[in-house]
Design a protein that fits this description.
Layout lengths: L2 E6 L7 E8 L5 E7 L6 E7 L6 E4 L11 E4 L5 E7 L2 E10 L2 E11 L4 E2 L9 E7 L2 E11 L6 E7 L1 E7 L6 E7 L5 E7 L4 E4 L9 E6 L5 E6 L6 E6 L6 E4 L8 E7 L12 E7 L2 E7 L5 E5 L11 E2 L4 E6 L7 E6 L30 E2 L6 E4 L18 H5 L3
Antiparallel strand pairs: 1-2, 2-3, 3-4, 4-5, 6-7, 7-8, 8-9, 10-11, 11-12, 12-13, 14-15, 15-16, 16-17, 18-19, 19-20, 21-30, 22-23, 23-24, 24-25, 25-29, 26-27, 27-28
Length: 404
């Protein structure tokens, strides 16, 4: 669900304390690399998140891992690990066996680069990206777990791809940010069963349009595009002819916003989905909550030791933020975020300053957006209307075929 690269824990002198925190698609488990005992390298660590209290289980191997090792939790409790050795990436499943760590080897991929994608819905498969047959001019999508014969390529995408967002609950439609030979970046969707690629975002001909998050239940999309004249956060609805909007609430002065989780289970009501965002500014890092139907951000204090940029929503609106401190090495803060009343605030208001949007306590009143009702609108050119109440697809003719 969420991946963040490297972070630090307060009080350790700024030394990297973990890397690659990832939450399984169903929110049951998470995995990361933690500092090994004695500080000599890294140890995979699995977190259990769906019990009464979270707890962590270390999964040490015969030797500490390097910082480039990648881990991905699966809903069955195993952890997929990807280790690089020269130009080959070795894949295995780790699981606790009493005081030891069991390891099931899956095979390897020969490539200069292999990047695990976010956990696929359902958890039965795992995917990764590598340079394709054309090198930097194409990208291969690999099925690295869940296939009958070990790792195998399932699609080839022209251009250099990054990102990775799932658009459906079946784990078939994968959105990627593709950069072409001209340097322009547009989000595309890959049908993994057919190996076919279709356009997804085409806000303007000359804009860079990236997909950051998508919710398969409601169809809500969070995008970043420079179509308004500068890179800004916006939102749209998958499979709808409704335009992409760039609210002033998502452009507060002096801070940077990065969305990391969307509330699931809100079928047919994308405007009511709560979105959690990481906020970085001179006053520190904290959490904000926003809904497309609201013209303001709600600012919340993050727990001490928050594994920044990671978290998940429950269907009923509880935001869960993992954290790790010296006293609590495995913690999960649970914040109930109530749905605000519909807004009737009239007239323009000044945009919030960095002093107004500092890391406030959870009980503080929400900071209003710049100007009530102010937003910039662009149209999603390539997303066709769906023959389904969820308005998720078709993104192309091939996507429509999957429902026939």
């Amino acid at each position: 669900m969420t991946v963040c690269a490297v972070d630090t824990v307060p009080g350790d002198g700024g030394r990297a304390a973990y890397t690659g925190f990832t939450i399984a698609a169903d929110g049951s488990y998470a995995a990361r690399l933690a500092v090994a005992e004695g500080g000599g390298g890294w140890t995979p660590e699995r977190w259990t998140l769906d019990g009464p209290e979270p707890y962590a289980v270390p999964l040490p191997g015969p030797r500490p891992e390097g910082p480039g090792t990648q881990v991905l939790p699966l809903p069955d409790g195993r952890v997929l690990i990807c280790r690089r050795a020269a130009d080959r990436h070795h894949l295995a499943l780790l699981y606790p066996t009493g005081p030891c760590t069991g390891e099931l080897h899956l095979g390897s991929v020969e490539s200069e680069r292999l990047t695990l994608l976010p956990p696929a819905p359902g958890g039965l498969s795992a995917y990764a990206l590598s340079p394709g047959r054309a090198g930097a001019n194409s990208t291969a999508v690999w099925l690295v777990h869940g296939g009958p014969y070990g790792p195998e390529p399932v699609a080839e995408v022209p251009g250099r791809c990054s990102g990775g967002t799932w658009l459906d609950r079946g784990g078939r439609l994968l959105a990627l940010d593709r950069t072409d030979a001209s340097g322009r970046t547009k989000a595309v969707v890959v049908d993994l069963e057919r190996g076919e690629v279709s356009p997804l975002l085409q806000i303007t001909d000359d804009s860079d349009d990236r997909l950051l998050l998508a919710d398969p239940d409601s169809g809500l999309l969070l995008v970043r595009s420079d179509a308004p004249g500068e890179p800004r956060l916006g939102w749209g609805v998958l499979g709808s002819h409704r335009p992409v909007r760039f609210p002033e609430a998502l452009r507060p002065q002096g801070v940077a916003l990065a969305p990391f989780a969307i509330q699931p289970g809100q079928a047919l009501v994308p405007e009511g989905c709560a979105v959690a965002l990481r906020v970085d500014g001179p006053n520190g890092t904290w959490v904000a909550v926003w809904r497309p139907s609201q013209r303001r951000l709600q600012h919340l204090a993050a727990p001490q030791g928050w594994l920044r940029g990671s978290g998940l929503w429950t269907v009923d609106g509880e935001l869960r933020l993992p954290y790790s401190t010296g006293h609590t090495p495995c913690g999960l803060a649970r914040i109930t975020v109530s749905r605000p009343e519909p807004e009737t605030l009239p007239g323009p208001r000044p945009r919030p300053t960095v002093e107004e949007v500092g890391p406030a306590p959870a009980a503080r009143a929400a900071v209003e957006e710049g100007e009530t009702g102010s937003f910039t609108v662009f149209t999603l050119r390539s997303v066709a209307r769906a023959p389904t109440p969820l308005q998720q697809a078709p993104l192309s003719r091939t996507a429509a075929d999957r429902r026939s």
